[in-house]
């Protein structure tokens, strides 16, 4: 059977300093550095996944944490088929902001047929001590994800568990479409 290639745009969004860039760098380049500067606007990275009969090219759009408050997110979000919403388990305020990021996403981008794009919640910095407020809610994450419309959630750490985030990079997309089916129908 002939290999098929697919290209998907996946957003990586969340508050400033939650580790979006670190997750992307770890997943794409297998590299971690604690010396990242804040992303200004948007940055891009390409992650290639080889899944059975398919080659998946994920265009990872690293959206700056303060962008939700600007007018550019609609432009950045356009044509996305999936998203990771990232928060920092050591800062409960970043978890509280997840709802607003998801609302912004749902308001500004849809796939064909008007469906919301699939979004996965990433709880980052799990190598560090969890904020007390988040620790109280961690047992109800499945329920929270259902209520907010996330397809699931994962704990990760760009610092020590780089492979954990990397292995879930295709989660917002689901399986590749059958031959001849448009990418927009995921």
Structure description:
This protein is α/β, with parallel strands linked by helices and 186 residues long. It has a single domain, classed as Rossmann fold. The protein has seven helices and six strands, in the order βαββαβααβααβα. The C terminus is likely disordered.
Helix and strand pattern: EHEEHEHHEHHEH
Radius of gyration: 16 Å
| Share of β-strand residues | 25-35%
User: How many domain regions?
Assistant: 1
Q: Just give the CATH class.
A: Alpha Beta
Number of helices: 7
Tally the beta strands. Answer: 6
How many strands, which pairing sense, and closed or not: the largest β-sheet? 6 strands, mixed
End-to-end distance: 22 Å
Q: And the CATH topology? A: Rossmann fold
| CATH architectural type | 3-Layer(aba) Sandwich
Give a topology summary:
Layout: E1 4-13, H1 20-29, E2 42-51, E3 54-63, H2 73-77, E4 82-88, H3 92-96, H4 98-108, E5 118-124, H5 132-137, H6 141-148, E6 152-155, H7 162-167
Parallel strand pairs: 1-3, 1-4, 4-5, 5-6
Antiparallel strand pairs: 2-3
Please name the defining characteristics of this protein.
about 190 residues; disordered C terminus; 7 helices; Rossmann fold; alpha/beta; six-stranded mixed sheet
